[in-house]
Amino acid sequence: MEQTFSQPYKHYFRKRFFLFFIPLLMVGILSEPMIIQNPFEELEDYGAFVLFLGIYILVLGAWSAFLTSMMWRFKQFKLKQ
User: Fold this and answer.
1) How many degrees, rounded to 5, is the angle at CA 12 between CA 54 and CA 58?
2) Which residue, among 1, 16, 2, has the nearest Cα to 72 in the 3D structure?
3) pTM score, whole prediction
4) How far, in Å, CA of 72 to CA of 17, rounded?
């Protein structure tokens, strides 16, 4: 039995990843007071900003990758049936 897939995973992932990442990042940044309301008066404020921004990018990138992978798997499951 031969399986045919419409798009390879890499192509699908690269095409859809930023559709999840950009909105999640915007909502995450706009809802975090440590990023938005940072006074930038001392060096520690810059460090906190970079730390929180880095954590948000890492965590939301992982969530976006997970959601993209699950959508691709559901799509492939539907194609098999």
Assistant:
1) 10
2) 16
3) 0.79
4) 11
The per-residue pLDDT for range 33-71, each reduced to its tens digit, is: 888 898 999 999 999 999 999 999 999 999 999 999 999
* pLDDT tens digits, one per residue of 12-37: 999 999 999 999 999 988 888 888 89
CA pair distance 17, 24, nearest whole angstrom: 11
Tokens representing residue 34 in the block: 């440590």
